[in-house]
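To fix ideas, we quote verbatim a fold written out as tokens:
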Amino acid sequence: MAMSETRSGCAANCCFIVMLTCGSALVFAGATFSIHEIDEVRQSKLGEMTLAANLIGANSTAALSFRDAQAAAETLQTLGTDRHIVAARIYDAQGAPFATWMRPGVNDSDVPPLAEPDAGSFAGGVLRLSSGIYLDGRRVGSVFLERDLDELRAGIVRYGFHRLRSASGFDAVRLPAGRAAAAQHIRSDSGAGSARKLHSRRRGIRSGRCSGRLPGNRTPD
């Protein structure tokens, strides 16, 4: 019985170690995959912002040429349909602000006061993009866009929760099942051993009774 319990305990421990190793490997693979996926999503958002900046620029060339700031502001207001766009500004050819649009509550100091070099960057939980506006190959201005990354962060949290739940579910569901099976095996061995002992005891009692009756039952001469 003690040997069976030892074997069952070793089996349960080995099962736990194997499952812990597999779970750790899954978590590491998920983290690696999530980093790669985050980079892909960032590049996708940067591409979307670049497209939006190009559209704003194409629709602002006339306003810049005729110095129509109201028309440029109306063009920027179309960005209000995207709830992730935080601020936008059009600059003239000299880099001075020409038209600005911001969501309520956004501080004007967050928008560059002068045009910046064409570039996109991720910093402070936002995506900032500066892009030139061209007309017939001539630079007539530039546009600045700022977008929050709430959607990206929410996606990362959902992805991480899903991975964590999958990994923990693997251990939580299968490990108790293995322990339960080991415990059942121990109980089975224990019960079988008790049954064998009881059977042997009964056989000994019956043998003793038989041996005690035989000497007294002598055959008469």
